[in-house]
Specification:
This protein is an alpha/beta fold and 189 residues long. The protein has 4 helices and 7 strands, in the order ααββαββββαβ. Strands 1-2-5-4-3 form a 5-stranded mixed sheet, with helices on one face. A two-stranded parallel ribbon has the order 6-7. The longest helix has 13 residues.
């Protein structure tokens, strides 16, 4: 098996067919209206129906969110997730377009050495908690967040330790097993 065949990816673009017509109509409109705000080669309709992925330039995120609210009635946020891509980190905003019955994921990549992008909490109040969670767990900073605070980790957690990054090694044993996490290893019996 060659390297290309062995590569596993979540990107599974759908064919332009009748099953995905509504999704492609939406994506085509976004690409036409906001072409300079998105990374077109990383925008696609997923093979799973009703799923669209759009990668937005960090400095254009707020403009893109306003556009989606105004033109596509995008108000229902599902959650925000993060990813460690190696040199970059990624924040993924997951929304649902009720009238179109389409889920859209808005991806924002930031460099690992300066992981910042503008907060959208004032535009979408529902992301208040999850923007803090992404900052805390990945170190991706939503600049301008009105209430940066701890939400998952204890207050005394080391400042530059981000437990969901791939390179985090738990140097001080901070994530030791607790009595409630399952059966004890044989060496502890």
């Amino acid at each position: 098996m060659s390297g290309a065949e062995a590569e596993v990816t979540e990107r599974r673009p759908a064919e332009r067919d009748e099953l995905h017509k509504r999704e492609y109509d939406l994506l085509d409109t976004i690409l036409q209206d906001m072409a300079d705000a998105v990374v077109a080669e990383e925008c696609y309709v997923h093979v799973q129906p009703r799923r669209v992925f759009v990668r937005v330039h960090p400095d254009r995120l707020r403009e893109f969110i306003r556009y989606m609210q105004r033109e596509h009635d995008m108000w229902q946020v599902s959650t925000l997730s993060g990813r460690d891509l190696g040199d970059d980190l990624q924040a993924n905003y997951h929304f649902f377009l009720n009238d179109k019955k389409i889920a859209i994921t808005i991806k924002v990549n930031v460099p690992r050495d300066k992981p910042e992008y503008p907060s959208i909490t004032d535009l979408v109040p529902g992301v208040d908690f999850v923007e803090n969670e992404i900052r805390e767990m990945f170190g991706i900073v939503p600049v301008g967040h009105p209430n940066p605070r701890r939400c998952e980790l204890p207050e005394n957690w080391p400042g530059e330790e981000y437990p969901l990054r791939k390179d985090w090694a738990d140097p001080r044993g901070l994530m030791k097993r607790s009595k409630t996490t399952g059966p004890r290893p044989k060496e502890e019996l």
